[in-house]
Amino acid sequence: MKFRRKETIEAVQWTGTNQSEVKALAAQFVMFDYADTNHDGKTFDTVLKVKTRECIIPANKGDYVVRGEKGDFFITPKEEFESIYEKA
User: Fold this and answer.
1) In what order do the strands lie in the sheet with 45-51?
2) Burial letters for 21-43: b for 16+ Cβ neighbours within 10 Å, e otherwise?
3) Computed from CA positions of residues 79, 83, 87, 88, in that sequence, does the dihedral angle turn out positive or negative?
């Protein structure tokens, strides 16, 4: 048997620089931190973390922050998101 998702969700893709767009979607469910990813003490990248029902999950650039039908938030990797959802 085959099944199709019925729900329409809201989501935004994390680019690493679109904090205001992510914050507009998820408000108090997102946190931003900064990490020295180059280990040079000069370059700091923004790290996005999302509070889910179970825990706090870091997002990678390209991942989607998704608001589900019940108002919960979660992270979905780009490849998985784009294989499941299409623009409404």
Assistant:
1) 30-35, 45-51, 56-59
2) ebbeebeebbeeeeeeeeeeeee
3) negative
Burial of 79 (0-12, 13-18, 19+ CB in 10 A): exposed
Summarised one tens digit per residue, pLDDT across range 12-58 is 999 999 999 999 999 999 999 988 877 888 888 899 999 988 899 99
Given a contact cutoff of 8 angstroms between Cβ atoms, the answer to whether 19 and 45 are in contact is no
Secondary structure of 18-41 in the HEC alphabet?
Answer: CHHHHHHHHHHHEEEEEECCCCCC
pTM confidence score: 0.84
Strand order in the sheet with 10-13: 10-13, 64-67, 73-76
Residues 45, 16: contact at Cβ < 8 Å? yes
